[in-house]
UniProtKB/TrEMBL annotation:
WD repeats lie at residues 117-159. Belongs to the WD repeat SEC31 family. It is a peripheral membrane protein. This is cDNA FLJ60494, highly similar to Homo sapiens SEC31-like 2 (SEC31L2), transcript variant 1, mRNA. Keywords: Cytoplasm, Cytoplasmic vesicle, Endoplasmic reticulum, ER-Golgi transport, Membrane, Protein transport, Repeat, Transport, WD repeat. Pfam families: WD40 (PF00400). One of its GO terms (cellular component) is endoplasmic reticulum membrane. It is found in: Cytoplasmic vesicle, COPII-coated vesicle membrane; Endoplasmic reticulum membrane. The keyword Transport applies. The lineage of its organism: Eukaryota, Metazoa, Chordata, Craniata, Vertebrata. GO terms for biological process: endoplasmic reticulum to Golgi vesicle-mediated transport; protein transport. InterPro entries: SEC31-like, WD40/YVTN_repeat-like_dom_sf, WD40_repeat_CS, WD40_repeat_dom_sf, WD40_rpt. It comes from Homo sapiens.
Length: 352
């Protein structure tokens, strides 16, 4: 069931679960152009009020940005201070990384840009904030570069690994980064060649690599299990192998489970932090699917009118709500509580 919608060719980030009221941040997408062919960037914040029956979001703040965005994340760093709403981090073109003070965007008072750094090579497409230490930010870009930043001191980021570790293979773009939800020193990275690398920050080296050896897996995203420290999912955007692989690092020679519900490549994955059985994906078959990982059953199916959704995200504050950003320039908010017509219809048919 659609709850809200917004016409923006943008990437998105939910406010942290501790934040009230609930907000959604949008940043002009570096991957899209509208009919004006403008390359200007804008960062906006909207209040999400589900008590309002209209489909509109309430505009709360806007800021011209130095760069258009490949990725946005919103963290609670600094929110222990009075009146603080945390930080938004944006990854842009040409290695640009920009930090914003959310309170200053909402109040339109002081300078909202905390810092801007340009240490990466190429577009910064992967960002994740550590769930245990909110000051630790992982960023990934071209040439297999992964940096770990301390938001308290952004001068010299820690570089994960070394260039020599990649000599056996050419450097790749980092497609996604994800901190482990149980062990705060563990980070994983997804690579287009089909592998995921698990890093131990205490040793500053990769401790295990997983790949399915098919040479057709083209990783577009990954996510750690919310509760089981050794499990993660990888998804593939290759139309020849549009699958989700569930891996367990305790026996990492092959996937624990392979899910094949999409008919074309998968563009985005999001694992519910409130219900570890629910996994949300969007793909080039113009569908958003929610699966129960325990039964492998599709419990929610949403056709998106011939438009590809390149990013789906569960809402951290409301476990039944998710947002979807699509290439047609719309961001839509949905609830899975209403279930989808297709799944309801199939279940009724099964009972007959």
């Amino acid at each position: 069931m659609k709850l809200k919608e917004l016409e923006r060719p943008a990437v998105q980030a939910w406010s942290p679960a501790s934040q009230y009221p609930l907000y959604l941040a949008t940043g002009t997408s570096a991957q899209q152009l509208d009919s004006s062919f403008s390359t200007n960037g804008t960062l906006e914040i909207f209040e999400v009020d589900f008590r309002d029956p209209s489909l509109d979001l309430k505009h709360r703040g806007v800021l011209s940005a130095l760069s258009r965005f490949h990725k946005l994340v919103w963290g609670s760093f600094g929110s222990g201070l009075l009146e603080s709403s945390g930080v938004i981090v944006g990854g842009g073109d040409n290695g640009m990384l920009i930090l914003y003070n959310v309170t200053h965007i909402l109040s339109s008072g002081k300078e909202p840009v905390i810092a801007q750094k340009q240490k990466h090579t190429g577009a910064v497409r992967a960002l994740d904030l550590n769930p245990f230490q909110g000051n630790l930010l992982a960023s990934g870009a071209s040439d297999s570069e992964i940096f770990i930043w301390d938001l308290n001191n952004l001068n010299v980021p820690m570089t994960l690994g070394s260039k020599s570790q990649y000599h056996e293979q050419p450097p790749e773009d980092i497609k996604a980064l994800s901190w482990n939800r149980q062990a705060q020193h563990i980070l994983s990275s997804a690579h287009p060649s089909g592998k995921a690398v698990v890093w131990d920050l205490r040793k500053n080296e990769p401790i295990i690599k997983v790949s399915d050896h098919s040479n057709r897996m083209h990783c577009s995203g990954l996510a750690w299990h919310p509760d089981i420290a050794t499990q993660l999912v990888l998804c593939s955007e290759d139309d020849r192998l549009p699958v989700i692989q569930l891996w367990d690092l305790r026996f990492a020679s092959s996937p624990l489970k392979v899910l094949e519900s999409h008919s074309r490549g998968i563009l985005s994955v999001s694992w519910s932090q409130a219900d570890a059985e629910l996994l949300l994906t969007s793909a080039k078959d113009s569908q958003i699917l929610c699966r129960n990982l325990g039964s492998s059953e599709v419990v929610y199916k949403l056709p998106t009118q011939s438009s590809w959704c390149f990013d789906v995200q569960w809402c951290p504050r409301d476990p039944s709500v998710f947002s979807a950003a699509s290439f047609n320039g719309w961001i839509s908010l949905y609830s899975v509580m209403g279930r989808s017509w297709e799944v309801q219809h199939m279940r009724q048919a099964d009972k007959v």
